[in-house]
Amino acid sequence: MSEEAHRTEQQIWFITGISSGLGKALADAVIAKGEFIIGTFRNPAQTEAFNETHHDRAFALTLDLTKPNDIRSAFDIVRSRFGRLDVLVNNAGFGFAGAIEEASIDEVRGVFEANVFGALQITQAVLPIFRQQQSGHIVQISSHGGFKAMPGFGVYNASKFALEGFSEALAAEIAPLGIRLTIVEPGPFRTNFAGDSLRQASARLTAYDATAGAFRERMQLVNGKQEGDPYKAAQAIIQVVAAAEPPLRLPLGKIALGTLTAKLESVQKDIASWKHVAESAVFA
């Protein structure tokens, strides 16, 4: 069997941000499964090293999510070299800690450029390929913090709320076209997310020491001790992609399950307590 004939039987995954953490774990797991990945790095040296190591089992591109030209160039290569894709995983992005008042507008814009606009543009770039095929699966890596906000994490929460908002609408738009979408909501995982990858507001206001300040300190304390295993998360994502009826949302980890449950209970409590007021705000 020729290489090209063999590749047509493989699923082709496009995964952003495979240098570390969940992205690397997922890339390793997909390659081990015998499927083909196209992965992205921001560092050209990492791209070159990856391609030298993996040869015909995978292919890496250098891509900065905040640069639209990088995204256009990457998908020009994908279309000309591979012609199709089966799975998109929007994984690249970063965390940001700090109280809302502490965050500068430039810092907020930086978070949104990567976590929202970068993911949105990658998603828009893959949709014509999936529409032509009438198949494909989009996996958006969000967070349990994309479902419930936390003091000290509000800017990051907002970026992931935005990702989930457009993704939930998109899932309904593309379902009739044979394209699926799953939002993955990990809790704390033992990656570098809470370490060097975590950005923090440059300002620090003592008024928020008990809330946002405590959150910053907690992130440092749990780094390297998180409950989540990124390689088990990778297997869970592979399982969802293979499912006949994948979920719209996939929380990962016991803490994530607790976070989502607490949010649902909170919303239900507010609805029940204030239902009479809500119902009164209509024309008689």
Q: Please write the CATH class name.
A: Alpha Beta
Structural class: alpha/beta
Question: What level of helicity do the residues show?
Answer: 40-55%
CATH 2nd-level architecture: 3-Layer(aba) Sandwich
Low-confidence stretches: 1-7
Please name the fourth-level CATH homologous superfamily. Answer: NAD(P)-binding Rossmann-like Domain
Task: Summarize the helix and strand pattern as letters.
Answer: HEHEHEHEEHEHEEHHEH
The total count of helices amounts to 9
Radius of gyration: 20 Å
CATH topology: Rossmann fold
Element layout with pairings:
Elements: H1 3-9, E1 12-15, H2 21-32, E2 36-41, H3 44-54, E3 58-62, H4 68-81, E4 87-90, E5 96-97, H5 105-133, E6 137-141, H6 154-174, E7 180-186, E8 199-200, H7 209-222, H8 230-242, E9 249-252, H9 254-280
Helix pairs in contact: 2-8, 4-5, 5-6
Could you explain the architecture of this structure?
There is one protein chain. The chain is of the alpha/beta class and 284 residues long. The chain has one domain: NAD(P)-binding Rossmann-like Domain (Rossmann fold), CATH 3.40.50. The protein is built from nine helices and nine strands. Strands 3-2-1-4-6-7-9 form a seven-stranded parallel sheet, with helices on both faces. The chain has a two-stranded parallel ribbon with strand order 5-8. Helix 2 crosses helix 8, helix 4 packs parallel to helix 5 and helix 5 packs parallel to helix 6. The radius of gyration is 20 Å and the shape is globular. The relative contact order is 0.13.
